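thought: fold this chain, then report.
action: predict
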Amino acid sequence: MASVTLRGFILVPDEDMQSVRRELPVHVELTRAEPGCLVFDVTPNENDPNHFDVCEEFDSRAAFEAHQARVESSRWGQVSARVERHYEILE
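observation:
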């Protein structure tokens, strides 16, 4: 089975920054505990406070899709709904 890697960044609107920063540690913790999660890092960019670099790796397409489904119905999904996502997905 091939792993799935997602790399890129998110841009958080100013009006959502407080709730995103508050919920991000919970989102990271829950994701890292998911079956099949190999890497999950969301790192603030030192040059732009609204820019966060994202790196994810899951051991299979099924694990990646399960993560996406969980996120969609999670608190993180709600607070990050207006976040701009710029990702590249590699299999």
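thought: worth noting. Strands lie at 4-11, 37-45, 48-58, 84-90.
final: tokens above.
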